[in-house]
Amino acid sequence: MSKKIVKTFIIDTNVLIHRSDAILSFKECEVVVPIWVLEELDKLKTYSDERGRNARQAIRFIEERTGHNDLAKGVKIENGSTLRIALEFDRKLTVDLPLNSNDNKIIFCALTIQKQAVHPNIKKEVFFVSKDINARVKARALGLHAVDYEKQKAYLANLYAGYREAKVSPDIIDRLIKGERIFWQDELFENEFLLLSDSSGRKTAVRYHTPEEGNRYIEYVETFENGVSGIVPLNSQQQMAFDLLLDDSVSLVTLVGKAGTGKTLLALAAGLKKVFESKAYNRVLASRPIMPLGKDIGYLPGDKTEKLSHWMKPLVDNLELIVSVNNKADYKSVDAILTSNRVEIEAITYIRGRSLPKQFIIVDEAQNLSPHEIKTIVSRAGKDTKVVVTGDPNQIDSPYLDSDSNGLTFLVESFKGQKIFGHVTLSKSERSELAELAAELL
Predict the structure, then answer these.
(1) Rounded distance, CA 254 to CA 265, Å?
(2) Residues 99/109, Cβ–Cβ less than 8 Å
(3) What is the pLDDT of residue 143?
């Protein structure tokens, strides 16, 4: 007779900070929250950032589902699992690690639960779930089965690139350049690009579509030789990016790439063209998370505008470049653009709660946002609004995220294949030879 398998998941604090309702991800099992996790949530709940919000929500989540029940024995919750609060650990199982550390107490608690998981008719499998790599390493050293929280995770190594390469006959490329739509036999993701090459070495970029009647076809992508707001694409990937950025039927665009690939510059150039020239949108709203590189410099003097100017300087730098290569009246100076009320540079913090209709929204450095924050921002998009999200998952400054669990990679993998979504991974740095070498070697 085979034993019944019962799984127990011990949840670390950082899992609930990453996602406040993470407990619901574990179905038909036992979910254990060590009492020291509640202590850490209590310390974090006063923070004004995402950590504080998630700590408060996690505490409310647990309280709403437990009511006046005996939490030490466990209570049934809506996903079929039993939620229990663990109150102690077996001190005989501790090793020479300081017991004044809540992290160690949580690990020892998980170790105790694993040692107690013995039953003649039931096979109990115990998992310690943590997003802290060091905690997982320590747990494994003590014999625990430690795992990462995999929900809302997309692996960067396998991230959708937005395009692929293919070889075709010269006749195919000639027909595409003339503006002909060509049936494509292989099924691709909606709005995925193909970089076609023929026997002579000639290359061209095309985009894949599936209209309502179901016929799959590819069509030529404009080269934008005359530039967009004065910015001319320097490679095929930038050309593909402009194709998506200027297509009003594509409401969400993601651009991923290392430093110097032009993500922010392309997005701003397209946004300015759409607002000032074609007037498809009322305003460009450019934003980025306030996340310092290196040690934080502390409080900054001045009002909100003066404080934000330090954090938003990378966006202003790109505007200055656009102004320097553009001779049109609408682009006289950066100050003229910013005071026109048609371009707004704002911190991510102030977007929460707003409704943003008919705007061209650019979210820069999105790799420093959690999946929940990305959801909050994208869901702010009102009628006729376009959202462009850019970033480099290899340059994450938040200690609570990594290249696989950040909001940008999660967004790309979640939306691929949708008709209103397009993505391009830019790989070639066009900033300078030095920038290209630094991105590759350092």
Answers:
(1) 14
(2) no
(3) 93
